[in-house]
């Protein structure tokens, strides 16, 4: 078993950016990913377009050229794949790390591959760049575990001609609603906010509002789904409870970090349920364990947070090499 200087858990854009930054400073890093390269992006809706412009998603000094100002999911997959290849980043895909424990002056990481064969690694430093997408924010209501309910939206086609309820009011909910309406689904959004989210893409909002005003898309503000049954949903709104006929539910309510994995590694959690770390160095309360990317984003949106998360690697390297001190508290 080889001793690695640094192991990065997660091969998303920010994990890759951290690996490249380490490499530039003469530090070899091994990236371990439980699925495929940039798995979270591969889970985005098939025809999704990023909120960010391409230059704000660049890593490793490689230009991100796109056909339009806002890159698509497919363009991003291609870009990050090429970035990893050009920099020769060492990546172990389809390996899951389940435990990080202190071992001498470093750490022992254990886990398994996709065939459940055990794995063990040793390293001096760990960077956790695991993202959020495997852990959706659940509603905690009756019927949430039915087959008709999904926390992910990939493409509209399977829902053609169906009555679809979307829970949430973020960009993902709005984009899904527009795609579903275009293919003939009957779409209703249930949103707890009092009005439209200010984060909605400005070039999308006018078109969406027009469809709501014309009754093409149903929109219920200050409302929440309280029960899901096979043929309908129950909604609690300002005027009381009512029922809507329903075939499918998309609960696009966001995601959260893997709190169990983090806490079992010794990382403490803030009151809001987010991991503790020093924003100046990205180091957690466990010396030698750092966070990078969306796992450190707290409330920010995933697609926007790549813009700043791609620079976490520099903060980490500066701290490792003694260029920056931890924040004084």
Describe what this molecule looks like in 3D.
The chain has 329 residues and is an alpha/beta fold. It folds into 2 domains: 3-135 and 255-320, FAD/NAD(P)-binding domain, CATH 3.50.50; 149-251, 3-Layer(bba) Sandwich (FAD/NAD(P)-binding domain), CATH 3.50.50. It is built from 8 helices and 15 strands. The chain has helices spanning 13-24, 39-42, 73-86, 171-182, 205-213, 259-264, 302-309, 312-320, and strands at residues 3-9, 29-33, 90-93, 95-103, 106-113, 118-128, 149-150, 163-167, 186-190, 218-220, 224-228, 232-237, 240-245, 248-251, 289-291. The strands form 3 sheets. Strands 1, 2, 3, 4, 5, 6 and 15 form a 7-stranded mixed beta sheet that branches. Helix 5 (205-213) links the parallel strand 9 and strand 10 (218-220). Helix 1 packs parallel to helix 8 (312-320). It starts with a strand and ends in a 9-residue tail after the last helix. The relative contact order is 0.17. The mean pLDDT is 93.
Inertia-based shape: globular
Percent range of helical residues: 10-25%
Q: What is the residue-mean pLDDT, rounded to a whole number?
A: 93
Radius of gyration: 21 Å
Number of strands: 15
Uncertain parts:
none
| Order of SSEs | EHEHHEEEEEEHEHEEEEEHEHH
- The assigned structural class equals alpha/beta
What is the CATH class of the largest domain? Alpha Beta
**What is the level-2 CATH architecture name of the largest domain?**
3-Layer(bba) Sandwich
Q: Report the CATH superfamily of the largest domain.
A: FAD/NAD(P)-binding domain
Strand content is: 25-35%
């Amino acid at each position: 078993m080889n001793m690695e200087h640094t192991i990065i858990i997660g091969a998303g854009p920010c994990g890759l950016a951290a690996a490249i930054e380490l490499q530039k400073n003469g530090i070899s890093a091994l990236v371990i990913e439980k699925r495929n390269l940039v798995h979270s992006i591969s889970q985005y809706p098939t025809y999704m377009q990023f909120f960010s412009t391409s230059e704000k998603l660049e890593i490793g000094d490689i230009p991100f050229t796109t056909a339009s100002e806002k890159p698509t999911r497919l363009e991003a997959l291609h870009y990050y794949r090429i970035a990893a290849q050009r920099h020769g980043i060492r990546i172990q895909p389809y390996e899951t790390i389940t435990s990080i424990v202190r071992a001498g002056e470093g750490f022992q990481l254990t886990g398994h591959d996709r065939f459940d064969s055990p794995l063990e690694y040793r390293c001096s430093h760990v960077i956790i760049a695991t993202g959020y997408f495997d852990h959706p924010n659940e509603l905690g209501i009756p019927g949430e575990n039915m087959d008709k309910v999904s926390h992910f939206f990939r493409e509209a086609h399977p829902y053609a001609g169906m009555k679809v309820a979307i829970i949430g009011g973020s960009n993902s909910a709005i984009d899904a609603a527009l795609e579903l309406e275009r293919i003939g689904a009957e779409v209703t959004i249930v949103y707890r906010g009092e009005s439209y989210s200010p984060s909605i893409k400005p070039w999308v909002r006018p078109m969406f509002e027009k469809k709501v005003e014309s009754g093409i898309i149903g929109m219920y503000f200050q409302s929440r789904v309280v029960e899901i049954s096979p043929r309908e949903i129950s909604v609690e709104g300002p005027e009381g409870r009512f029922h809507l006929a329903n075939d499918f539910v998309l609960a696009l309510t966001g995601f959260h970090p893997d709190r169990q994995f983090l806490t079992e590694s010794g990382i403490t959690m803030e009151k809001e349920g987010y991991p503790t770390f020093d924003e100046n160095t990205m180091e957690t309360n466990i010396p030698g364990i750092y966070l990078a990317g969306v796992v450190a984003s707290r409330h920010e949106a995933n697609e926007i947070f790549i813009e700043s998360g791609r620079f976490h690697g520099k903060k980490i390297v500066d701290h490792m090499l003694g260029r920056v001190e931890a924040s004084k508290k």
